[in-house]
Every structure is written in C-alpha cells, then in structure tokens.
Sequence to fold (1100 residues):
Amino acid sequence: MKPMQILVIGGVAAGASFAARARRLSESAQITVIERGPDVSFANCGLPYHIGGEIPVRDVLAVQTPASLKALLNVDVRVRTEAMQIDRENRRVLVRDVQSGQSEWLNYDKLMLAPGAAPRVPDLPGIGDARVFTLRNLADMDKIAAAANAGMRAVVVGAGFIGLEMAEQLHHKGLTVEVVQIGAQVLPQIDAKLALLLENELVHHDIKLHLNDQVVRFDGQGDALHCQLASGKTLEADFVVLSIGVEPETRLAKDAGLTLGARGHIVVNDFMQTSDATIYAAGDAVETRDRVFGQPVNVPLGGPANRQGRVAADHIFMPEKARPYPGSMATAIVRVFGVAAGSTGWTEDRLQKAGRDYRAVTVNDYQHATYFPGAMPLTLKILWDTQTGELLGGQAAGHDGVDKRLDVLATAIAGKLTVEDLAHLELAYAPPFGSAKDIVNLAGFAACNQRDGLVETVTELPVDASVQIIDVRGKPVADANPVPGTVNIPMPTLRANLERLDKSRPVVTLCAMGKNSYFASRVLKQHGFDVKSLDGGVKMLLNTRNPAKM
Amino acid sequence: MKPMQILVIGGVAAGASFAARARRLSESAQITVIERGPDVSFANCGLPYHIGGEIPVRDVLAVQTPASLKALLNVDVRVRTEAMQIDRENRRVLVRDVQSGQSEWLNYDKLMLAPGAAPRVPDLPGIGDARVFTLRNLADMDKIAAAANAGMRAVVVGAGFIGLEMAEQLHHKGLTVEVVQIGAQVLPQIDAKLALLLENELVHHDIKLHLNDQVVRFDGQGDALHCQLASGKTLEADFVVLSIGVEPETRLAKDAGLTLGARGHIVVNDFMQTSDATIYAAGDAVETRDRVFGQPVNVPLGGPANRQGRVAADHIFMPEKARPYPGSMATAIVRVFGVAAGSTGWTEDRLQKAGRDYRAVTVNDYQHATYFPGAMPLTLKILWDTQTGELLGGQAAGHDGVDKRLDVLATAIAGKLTVEDLAHLELAYAPPFGSAKDIVNLAGFAACNQRDGLVETVTELPVDASVQIIDVRGKPVADANPVPGTVNIPMPTLRANLERLDKSRPVVTLCAMGKNSYFASRVLKQHGFDVKSLDGGVKMLLNTRNPAKM
Fold:
C-alpha cells in the first residue's frame, strides 16, 4: 500500500503537535512540515523573557531543529519554505523556497493548515519606521533584543498579554517604558476591577500608562521616534513594540475556497476538519466552539493549538477512537512583576454585552492561611448562570496562587460545576498551600448567599444621599483610609449601635474586603433594614485607581 | 416566640464554623458554645509551625477569644467546660466547669456535636513518660515548644501528615530527628512511589527513617528516653512526638445512644443530622460519605469540618434551601522542606484492596515551561475507572505546583470528569506558571493512550530474562546511571537499530521519565514487537529508594 502523504503547513505549536502525534499513530505515513520561517517548534511564549534577560540563553527557546525532528519523529521539515497555493482537486500544494525562489508541487492525502496568526499592524503614518517592532518569532525577538539596551526609552502599544509581558521585560532590562492602551484599562481580557492590580503594579515600577489613548502617527525625529497620541501627547522613544492583537493567516485557505468565519478565521468541525474533509486546520487561525455557550470563537493561545493538533491527528489515524475537541474557554494568565492576573471562561463585560442572565461576586482573601508567613492578598471573581448556578467564568488577581485558582475554575467550567459545587470543592490544604476554606470555597459561599437571598450587593457606592453608607471597618483603618460620605460603625459594635441608623432609609455596608460588610448586612437585614453590601469591599472601588496613572 | 436555643459542643473547626453560620442565618437564636479546652477557634493546622519557629508569633494561632466571638457573633462561649451527658428526652446537656467542678444542665432546641478526634495513644510500657507528647491543641503545642531546644534529639513516631510536619519543623528548630514508621513508606495516604520524594528529602536533611518498624517500649534512662523498636533497635531521645492517627471523641454520642459507624464514628445523614434529628454532628468525629464511591468514610481534616458545620446550620435555619454535604474525598497535602506531596480521591493501594476495576498512569514533567528559569520536576499519578474513564483519584509530588495539580484533580473528581476531559482541560498558561500542555493534560493523554490500546505499561522491570529491556535514554545519561540488564539504544537512533532486536521476544522500553519510552514503544509496536513501556520511567523505580534510609 502506498504510504499516506501528510503535509503540514506551519511548524510551531499546532503544526508541530499534529506532526508528532501523527507519527506516534503511524510509522508508515510520510509526514512533511512546511515552515515559512527559519525555525520550527520554538517556544514562542518565551520570547519576551529572552528579550528581558530573564531567560538568558537563547538556545532553550529553539530546542528542535529539522535534524532533531527527523531523528526523533522521522518527519521531513522544510524551513524557509512558503506554501503558495492549494490545489484541492489534485490534492497538492505549491510551495516556494523563500531563498532560492524555486517552487514545486507537493502532494498530500491529508493536509494540515497551521499557519498561525500575525501581529496586527495598523495603517498609520510612520508605521514603516524600522524602530517599530512586532513580536512573533525568534527573528523578531532577536531584532528587539538587539535594539533594546538599558537606559533606552521604549513605548509599548497595546496592553494585552504580550504588551504587558513586554513592558515588564523591557523594564527588567533597564529601559524606561511607557504603555499606550486604547481602552480604559489594561488587559481587556479581564474585568476592569481585576485589572487594577496590574495597573498599580506597572505604575509602582514607574511604567507610565496612557489609557484611553492610541497612537495616530509615528515620526522619526533624528535619534528619537515620536509617537503622536490621539490625546495630543507625544511620547519619545528609542523604539516601539506593537502588540495590539493578531490576525489569522488565512490567505491560503481563502484562496482555496475553504469556508471562513465571520471574522475571517478558518471554520473547522469538532475534529478540526475544514469545509474540505481532507484538509484539517488548527491553532491561532481557526474558529472553534466556545466551551461555555458553544458559539464560534477564536482563541489564539498555545494550549488550544497543541490539543487541536492532537485531535486532528487522532481523527485521521484512528477515527473510531478520536474524541471531538471540546471547545476553548480562553483561560489565560499574565505575570507583571510581583503580581499576576488572568481569566477563564466569560468575563462580566462579555456577558453583559451578550445580554446573558448572569450574576457575579468578587471575594478577597489570601492565597494561604493568613497566620502562615507570606500570606498575600488575592482577589477572585466568579460569574454564574442565574438560573442553573453553573459557572460561566472566573478571574483572579494577586501575588501568588492566581494560576491555581484559575485552573480550579477552568476545571469547574469543564465539569459544568455550579456555585454550590464550588462551595464544596475539597481542595488541598496545609498552611503553606491554602486555607481550610479556600478563596474558591468562599466565592462559592458568597454566590450561594446571593442565590439564597441572604445578601444583596452593590459594586459601586450609591450617589443617592438618602442611602446610609456604613463603614464597618475598625476605626484606625477607617480613619487612615476614609471613604467620604460614610459613617464608621465597626462590626463588633454594630449590634449595640442599631439605633443610630434610620430604618426608613436604605443602607449600604462596606468594609475592607467585602466579608465584614456581608456580616453586617446580615445583622441589619434581620433587624428589618433594606441593606446591600459592597461587593469586594473598598479594595474593589475603581476610584482607588492609582492617581499616578495618566 | 421563644428564641431557638442552639448548643454547640466543641469550639474549633466544625463547631466554630457552625456557630458563625448559624448567627448569620439567625440574629435571634441563642447560641452557646461549650469547649473543654482553654481556647476556641484556634488554628490547629498551624501548631507544628509555631513549634518549629516558622510561625514565630503564637498569637496569630489564637485570634478569636470568647470575648471577640461575643462581640462579632453574639455567641456565648464557655471554655474549660466539658459536656458530660446528653439528656435527649429533655433536650439538655449536662456540662461541667473543668476548674470548679460545678455542673449544670443546658437546654437546647438543636444540638451540634463537634467534639473532634484525639491523638491515638498506644498502650505501651513507658507511654506515660512526661517526655512522650501528642499534638492537638495550643496547650500541647506550648508543651512541645517548651521542651524542644536546638541540639536535642527527637523521635517522631508515625509518618503521616502531622508526623512529617513535626519532623520538618523540629529539624528546622535545630534538633536531630528520627522518624519511626510502622509501614514500608512514609505517608501511607499516597502510593509508595510518590512517597519516595518525601523519603529522599527527609534523608537529605539527615532525618533518619525507620520504616517497617514500631516502638514497643519507652524507657526513661536518666536524661534520655529510650525508644525500643520492634526491630531491636533502640533510639535515644530527649522527647518523643506520637503522631499515629486520631480517634473520634464519641463517648458522649455513644452514651446518648446515637448511632455510631463500624469504626466508631458518629453516623450522620447528608445534612449532618445524627440518628436523633435534633442533634447534628460535624468534623473529625463523624462518618460521612465517600465522594467517589459513596460508602461511609471518616475524613478528619479541616476543610470538610468547616463545610459540614455550614451545612448543618443551613439545614436548621433554611431547610428548604440547604444543600446536602456532597461527601469527602480526602484531599490532603504535606510540605517536607523543599518538596510537597499529596493526594485526592482514592489511591491505588486502596483501589486494589477494594477490588475496584481501575487503571493508573504516572507521568513526570515540570511545574512550568522547562525553558523558564526555576523549572523543577513534578510527578503526577492518576487513577481512573476502567469502564467509564472517570477519575477516581490522583496524587502529585514535587517541588512546586503540587497543590495546584491536586486542586485541579479534586475539582475534576467533583465534576466526574474522565481522563479524556483531563486531556482537554484548558489551564492557565504563561511560562512562569505552566506549560502549553500541562502535566495534567499529559496524564490525560497517557491515560487515553492506554485506553485506546496505543501503549501497554509495566510499573516494575521484568525479571524474566527472555524480555529485552531497551533503555532509550541518551548514552551519557544511561552510562552515568545505568539500569542493569538493559540495552541502550537512544530514542533518536531506534528506527535505525531495529534489526538489533529479536521480534520473537517481548520488549520493555524505559527512559528517564516515561515519555521517550512511550515514544519508543509506539515505534516498536508498529514494527510488530510485543512491547510495554515502563510507567513513569527510571525515576519511579522503587529501587531508586535512597540507600541511606534505614
């Protein structure tokens, strides 16, 4: 029998995973990987960290070579080779050697498209300046690393995951860094209040944030590149890193007539087959299903890409045993100096815009037992379906243990767990690692309290003067960090001071972290007050946003 | 209406959580907590760490006092008060002031029994020596802390969670520590191979382990306490800490005629009601349901205790909204110096003894991207139902990220996730926090490979000389740490060396961590060999056990 010809376009995350899994499943298949760039299977998520010097040795990011993949997997890898055209009828792809310009047709029985996504580059005056960089591959990394020296000024445009990592790493290398972000917050992948911690951490490291702003023009002025912002400000930089998102590389798929989604991604079924059943696609360029609600979604992240490649290979070589890709939930995390924040599933912003029926709660606690050395604050927000109680999304921000809680919530979403289930998760507890009631349990408790009508919450302080706002923090804390318009009645004295409150007027209780104000609201509610508790406490008020931000 | 009288016996984890939740649900109830000891609501899991000095300030372990609980919760706490007898007919409890000896009857409408469990003390000659300690409360802690000084010799009897924590902390304080353990491994709550890391870490810190041994007699010999072991060895110590398990404190319940379980725990329903519906029980003394298989189980840990107290209070004050306690899965973790290990759900040892139909796989990887600084080895073992693929248990051991993986697996068990679901968990990935394919995904992949018949595994090397054992590690590694009776054919050279192998004889492949030997087994299987891969690699062979252990 003629061996099956497998052709793979793109040799990084999805393409490399696909090729490796294909070889495990078939020793006889002829597997060829075409990669436009000079490198395959490199560690693209590590690029910022080599630029900043945290990963000092470049080689660790480029462990595999065509030769090593040949030895390990018996896969033929052709780098610096671009796929030009798919001839679906004859099942062949025209490829071109980037250096020699020579082209040839390669046959396939099954084709895998893993072209990835390219950094978005806006059409702005001056965008072509050689000092405006984007970061996708090792060559990009080398360029930025060569350009970036301690003492220089860098402007990072875009404060998503890569923008924040670049800002951190350039600062780590000794540069002065400014960040320009089109929206009102950094990391729009999480809700604004959770992003506060990241913003404060950036400012704490003297990184200037220009929120609600954008570059409208780059002007090369001698040694300096001037970034003209919409606000009228001009930032001077030695170079700029653009990180405002990615665009799927789908020209090849489009030209071949494969079905694309509303936003231009390659449409695939649950086994990663495109509209042509002999052509699979995986990774940043494809549109799969949202794991929570099922609608089409593109999640350009490494984890989904790797697992999609695996699903496709299973479907080709053992279709009777292959399991469908279950969809993506956009679990992601970023570290910014000493803090981290991330999200899984849907954010409140997204649920709101989609008109979903959800509820939310934010809780503050610590990553482990407070009495154990090193306890640091941690914030957790969860969102759930009002009717079923099922978790729809979760976010965490803090110094330590953020990744753990995101992973628990991601697993809970995969299991369709409810807030009641979160309350009763039995997580690993010893003082160095957690609490007898972990913050995930606390979030579950708080959600159940909402569901059971034990508490009503507000997320901002009322401006209506008829509302009595009761600050139940201890007096020294309240005095040191007063909230205007409140009356301080520390929680332990509340029951003895009920007569100071007017039962005919609504009450909002607040405290530092949201727990004591819930306790206070229970006391007041049972004494007949119309009372709401400030969700997440003073800590979560957006007006605590650091005024040093610009 | 007469306020409801709530009486609580025991004021630590379950009792205190119950009282607090009861107060949130009812401002009018009269809540009284009876505690035999001098302290309430103290941090019992922190006790070893104050003895060792890692938690330097004692006060952080005893934050609540009767006065603070009165102020915060309007709960009457009576410390140094012992419950002597329950008069169920008249709904009252006879309590005795431990100091004055005076007693009185306290009425209840609902009674909560949260008596906890006491350290097991074996009936051995010399057991009454004042230098033999157990650790349950702050008073015990103070005694040990007062007795333990740097330079002394301590013997810890029992290598469960508390024994290991005590060994670590006494070493931390500068003592010479020996550990006596009745079984063949430390921490019988996990499988032997996972416990290796803990054992090696103890030995690395010059803590002598006496496995398969036990104390048969204590002899006070002047300044030294001689611990006579069954093996004939005598250990000299300045003091001994006994940590060989706990016994539920159920005399009160038993005398009152409440139903006890086969092993003497208080039987409760899913709402924590005992056989007397007006009497609830929670915490270390009760028998609830196993969350995996549903049979009666006692899990004496802080997390379950706290949540059980909450369930009981909900059932009393809002029975229509109360949710049943879902059972316990015995999630637990221990840190021993620089490493940690733990378990959730069922271990292989337990599944085997129960005759369950399960399968298991052990994978080795790192806690985060290998190219990111600080990557440390991590081992994960999962067990699943052969028929359904549902996760039955999981264990982890390593330097960092152990708690995270246990929490993910515990959440997966709660969600009845299968190994396929584990393969497709979308966990938070950035290089400082994880890998694009997290070790949990890898375990899912490996389990699916078993299920799909892609690989067969062995957990020990065959002794049958007809089996060809192929070591596919690189030559330098294999030369440095050879495995007797193997032939070294590095993975990248395997395809070129197939003719060196005899297809008529079975093959076992091995590598360092279990991954390359799986790859090799796929190559060989497809070339017609009868091949099995060594699960978890050389790292998991029990004969790698450190010979310095005694």
